Amino acid sequence: MSKDNLLKIPETAERLRCQAETVRRLLRRGDLVGVKMPSPNRGGTWKVRESSIERFLNGNQYRV
Predict the structure, then answer these.
(1) What CA–CA distances, in Å, run from 43 to 21, 33, 51, 62, 64?
(2) Is residue 1 part of a domain?
(3) 64 in a domain, yes or no?
């Protein structure tokens, strides 16, 4: 069983070849599955599972 890494929004955007705001929109729409990690200075930081990125890419024939 492989480890499912959690990636920050900028790292996810790089993988998807899109802007960070596009990743946030995909998270809000539920197209990507993310985890909101608590942050002492802000409301929280989103992390995206690597497996969610793979599922998204495999399920979409176009680039975002």
Answers:
(1) 17, 18, 25, 32, 26
(2) no
(3) no
Please tell me the distance from the alpha carbon of residue 1 to that of residue 36, in angstroms, as a whole number.
24
What is the domain range of residue 10?
A: 6-59
Kindly report the pTM of this predicted structure.
0.79
CB-CB contact of 11 with 25 (8 Å) = no
CA distance 17 to 57: 11
Render pLDDT for 3-27 as a digit per residue (tens, 0 to 9). Answer: 689 999 999 999 999 999 999 999 9
- State the total domains in the chain: 1
Element (DSSP H or E) covering residue 10: helix 9-16
